[in-house]
Design goal:
Blueprint (H helix, E strand, L loop, with lengths): L1 H18 L6 H6 L2 E4 L10 H11 L3 E4 L4 H7 L6 E6 L4 H6 L1 H11 L8 E9 L7 H18 L6 E6 L20 H14 L4 E6 L2 H6 L5 H4 L8 E3 L2 E3 L2 H15 L5 E8 L12 H17 L12 E3 L29 E4 L8 E4 L2
Parallel strand pairs: 1-2, 1-10, 2-3, 3-4, 4-5, 5-6, 6-9, 9-10
Antiparallel strand pairs: 7-8, 11-12
GO molecular function: glucan endo-1,3-beta-D-glucosidase activity
Pfam families: Glyco_hydro_17
Protein name: glucan endo-1,3-beta-D-glucosidase
Length: 362
């Protein structure tokens, strides 16, 4: 695993040099590693055209859709500078897993009409499908989707992956002893092998990382949850952990290594903090602190103690969504449905100067 990580590090550097447009500054290119989830579970979610304008204004260039939506795809078509990730719903997994032809049909209806006008970064096959009733369908669905993409787009840069949360891990701490739960270990091994087969270089597993839940459960202190410590909270051998985000990401790296699948790297599928819904644990001030510090953490490019390179991922989410279950789930948005900020934050660019940030005031 160590050799693969080193190779990956150099590949990232070379890829970054080769692909960053001349007109972008270095810090903007770094922020390009962080996108946002555009959820639609609300009664007054803004239309996709104004949403695209909003993302452009705040400097977001990566958008993740949890499922296909023609209206959103039409708005994104021919914009030219957004990377789009689109999801296969869990209830679609049995059909996609049934045959390559079924995966081709899914792709032909939802991706192919837009593949000349949209940059597809990922097709995300399933969301938190393991553990659960769709676990056995996930690996064959991934394999079929990869085959379907190769039929339509030889040499495509579109990647295929899935999303899991830390519910697949036990234990989680310290990161070096993290492992997949015995009852789902075989499923995870098959999924990881499928992902690895799809892309021998830079294959990714997406993971949900939410320190909020550990803080709200009283497991960790606030400063460790929100990147607020000035020294490590704990040491794992010679690796010092200053925040829970890094500890969770590295726990997945160790769990992947534990099933003997080399060369699969971790990308953050979703992370964020609710600004209301659970009393003192979900104030707008804490949400602002977490998300602001998270953005700075992504931009600085230092990665995690075990994996010291650029982290890529998605903030959850762009808007507050009132069709989510009552409570914190409705309040993860950076913005309200009227596109006013849920709280003030700054989108980082170059080393911190007033000219180097776009300040979004609440």
């Amino acid at each position: 695993m160590a050799l693969a990580l080193l190779i990956y590090w150099f590949a990232l550097i070379l890829a970054g040099i080769a692909t960053i447009p001349d007109q972008l500054g270095l810090a903007e290119a770094a922020f390009y590693n962080l996108g946002v989830i555009y959820g639609l579970s609300g009664t007054n979610i803004p239309d996709p055209y104004s949403t695209i304008d909003l993302c452009e204004n705040i400097g977001i260039r990566k958008i993740r859709l949890l499922e296909h939506n023609d209206y959103v795809m039409l708005a994104l078509n021919n914009t030219g500078h957004f990377e789009v990730s689109i999801g296969v719903r869990n209830d679609e997994l049995p059909e996609v897993a049934s045959s390559v032809q079924a995966a081709e049909s899914w792709y032909e209806l939802r991706v192919k009409p837009y593949h000349h006008g949209v940059i597809f970064d990922y097709i995300v096959v399933g969301n938190d499908a393991i553990p659960g009733p769709y676990s056995a369908y996930l690996a064959p669905a991934l394999e079929n989707m990869m085959e379907a993409i190769s039929v339509w787009e030889a040499g495509t840069s579109t990647k295929v992956t899935t999303v899991v949360s830390d519910s697949v891990l036990n234990p989680r701490f310290p990161p070096s002893v993290a492992a997949f739960k015995p009852e789902i270990k075989l499923y995870m091994e098959k999924v990881l092998k499928a992902i690895r087969k799809s892309r021998p270089v830079q294959s990714r597993l997406m993971v949900n990382v939410f320190p909020y839940y550990d803080y709200a459960a009283g497991i960790i202190p606030k400063d460790f949850a929100v990147f607020g410590r000035d020294k490590p909270y704990f040491w794992d051998s010679n690796l010092g952990y200053w925040n829970m985000f890094d500890a969770l990401v590295d726990a997945f790296y160790w769990a992947i290594s534990g099933v003997g699948v080399d060369g699969v790297f971790v990308e953050v599928a979703a992370t964020g903090w609710p600004s209301a819904g659970n009393d003192k644990f979900t104030t707008s001030a804490i949400a602002a602190e977490y998300n602001q510090n998270l953005m700075e953490h992504i931009v600085n490019g230092n990665g995690t103690p075990y994996a010291p390179w650029f982290i890529e991922g998605f903030l959850y989410s762009l808007y507050n969504e009132d069709k989510k279950p009552v409570g914190p789930a409705q309040h993860f948005g950076l913005f309200n449905p009227d596109q006013t900020p849920a709280y003030p934050f700054s989108v980082p660019r170059d080393p911190p100067t007033p000219e180097a940030e776009r300040v979004i005031k609440g």
